[in-house]
Amino acid sequence: MILDYGSGNLRSAERAVRRVGAEVEVTADPHAALEADGLVVPGVGAYAACMAGLLSVGGEKIIGSRLAGGRPVLGICVGMQILFERGVEHGVETEGTGEWPGTVDRLHADVVPHMGWNTVRAPEDSQLFAGLDADARFYFVHSYAARSWQLESGLPGQQPKVAWAHHGEDFVAAAENGPLWATQFHPEKSGDAGAHLLENWLRSL
């Protein structure tokens, strides 16, 4: 299920998930989003605008309820960023969903936005990146990111697994934390590597 809250490349995400074998719908209906086997939360554009859209459909409650019940959620791009406590863009601080501690702010790099293909350093025991080579490349388009990871522990057997990428500095490229997984890059735009990653997520459902 793809959550429609007015932000994100909904149709490209829908096509990408369908291409790897899933039955998928785009919905803003809270009941359908709560009951789905897996929920994708995409997002593009400004952090504040994405949060406003999410709040307008009760998306933060949907995400929280799903996670409380151990039901998988996959955040993509700004859909990952809003999982953190706050985002700061152009001096404006916006409260996020607070699923993870930390702040999303501007990358310190000579060229921003970070746009194009990049490699990711994933933990060896990552389920999300299982079967992918270390030189696999993923497609990024962003000026802001979580530049540190502050959640040190999780539930027993669910220690957070954090993947990193580098553009001017290290930033969080993906994270797996119990039923909540997310990527800063766009798997739906990342060719075969992105399709493999989405297959890994579907296998986890």
TrEMBL record:
Glutamine amidotransferase domain boundaries: 2-202
Pathway given in the UniProt record: Amino-acid biosynthesis; L-histidine biosynthesis; L-histidine from 5-phospho-alpha-D-ribose 1-diphosphate: step 5/9
InterPro entries: Class_I_gatase-like, GATASE, Imidazole-glycPsynth_HisH
Name of this chain's protein: Imidazole glycerol phosphate synthase subunit HisH
Subunit (UniProt): Heterodimer of HisH and HisF.
Keyword Cytoplasm: yes
Keywords assigned: Amino-acid biosynthesis, Cytoplasm, Glutamine amidotransferase, Histidine biosynthesis, Hydrolase, Lyase
Subcellular location: Cytoplasm
Catalyzed reactions: L-glutamine + H2O = L-glutamate + NH4(+); 5-[(5-phospho-1-deoxy-D-ribulos-1-ylimino)methylamino]-1-(5-phospho-beta-D-ribosyl)imidazole-4-carboxamide + L-glutamine = D-erythro-1-(imidazol-4-yl)glycerol 3-phosphate + 5-amino-1-(5-phospho-beta-D-ribosyl)imidazole-4-carboxamide + L-glutamate + H(+)
Active site: 77, 186, 188
Species this chain originates from: Amycolatopsis tucumanensis
PROSITE patterns according to UniProt: GATASE_TYPE_1
E.C. designation(s): 4.3.2.10, 3.5.1.2
Function: IGPS catalyzes the conversion of PRFAR and glutamine to IGP, AICAR and glutamate. The HisH subunit catalyzes the hydrolysis of glutamine to glutamate and ammonia as part of the synthesis of IGP and AICAR. The resulting ammonia molecule is channeled to the active site of HisF.
